[in-house]
Amino acid sequence: MSAFLAGGQFVDLILLWLGIEFIVLSGCLRRMAWRDLAFNLLSGASLLLALRQALMDASLASIAFCLLAGFVFHIGDIAQRMGVYPQAFGTRISN
User: Fold this and answer.
1) Of 81, 5, 61, nearest to 89 (Cα)?
2) Distance CA 90, CA 95 (A)
3) Is 8 in contact with 56 (CB distance < 8 Å)?
4) Which residues 6+ apart lie within 8 Å of 62 measured at CB?
5) Tens digit of pLDDT for each residue in 13-62?
6) Which residues, including other chains, have CB under 8 Å from residue 41's CB and lie 6 or more apart?
7) Under 8 Å CB-to-CB from 85, ≥6 apart: which residues?
8) The pTM is what?
9) Other CB atoms within 10 A of residue 7 CB
10) Mean pLDDT, to the nearest integer, of 2-13?
11) Are the C-beta atoms of 37 and 22 separated by less than 8 Å?
């Protein structure tokens, strides 16, 4: 069990679950919902990849890259939620 946790295989299972969640949610919700979910899920996936890299003793640069990608996706998610650039995703905010 500790090899499973220390080896990073549990992170692979979580990433698989995240991908299934994305497919199910985008299929169940309205047509453009996958675009609303994309930044949020990619942010979480980037953090999980950074965790996996750290558990696998990868280089500090690859861990930093995953964390930077997570930050960029997080900022994109916040900007989308605030309505900063909704036209880029084909949605309109009506006031």
Assistant:
1) 81
2) 16
3) yes
4) 53
5) 999 999 898 888 777 766 656 677 888 899 999 999 999 999 998 999 99
6) 18, 21, 22
7) 79
8) 0.76
9) 13
10) 77
11) yes
Is residue 24 a contact partner of residue 83, using CB atoms and an 8 Å limit?
no
Length of the chain equals 95
From the CB of residue 85, how many other CB atoms can be counted at a distance below 10 Å? Answer: 10
Angle at 55 between CA 47 and CA 10, to 5 degrees: 75
Record the tokens describing residue 35, joined without a space. 């675009």
Instruction: Give the per-residue pLDDT at 23.
Output: 83
pLDDT at 88 over 60: no
Structure tokens at 93: 């905010």
Structure tokens at 88: 């880029």
| Burial degree of 92 (CB within 10 A; 0-12, 13-18, 19+) | exposed
Tokens at 58, concatenated: 């990868």
